[in-house]
Amino acid sequence: MKNPLLPLAFALLATSASAKDQATLRYTPPPGEERPMVVEGVVGPQGGDFALRLRFDKLPFGKDCGNRCANVTLLLDTDANPRSGLQLGAKAAETGADLAIVVQGTRDIAGSGGEGFLRVKVRMLSDEARSVEDGEVVAELDHRRDSERIHIEEKTVFLLVDASTINLPSGRKVRVIYHPPGSKALQATIAGMLSGSATNSKVMIFRRGGWGKAPQGGQRIGTENK
Questions:
Q1: Phi and psi, residue 122, nearest 5°
Q2: Pairwise CA distance, residues 84 & 134, whole Å
Q3: pLDDT tens digits for 21-63?
């Protein structure tokens, strides 16, 4: 008999007014999952960026994961409108996503010793897109050269995705979608670029010109002192 699906949770921090500025993702991978999976994440607007803090259950790249390193896609419906963006049908949670953020652990085959690194590919999805691959690539980041955008502390990846230079739909709310393989899609709604939270920089994953030691558990990180 197959094991039943483990409980999954994708919960908003809705216990206080400050909690509306970020969402916390919690996911329990099934037994035997080989790839590193996101088990906790925080997403929120920060200035002209979307800021993410993703904690994996294993190191997302390197020798430990070999050829089965991280390959995670998070989708953002930046105006919480299913009529714009990716179109997979009314019943698909991903329908309406305007931005796909793909985080991959990979190897530099051309480099000496096949050095491992983390790559992030960002795709903008129009209403003509019928898959993530149909989206236009608007950014390709490498943690070795894009340290102002990607920071890694062991199993935790801090990421800033620039939304100011692309023509994304904007709204007061953003829908976040994460669909682990073989599981149901997980969703949450967070504050959008037009909510005021972006200019207030409530998430503050990146602050004062350097990466902050953000506490785990989806707690409020605080407001930047300029």
A1: -115, 125
A2: 14
A3: 455 788 999 998 999 999 998 898 888 889 899 999 999 999 8
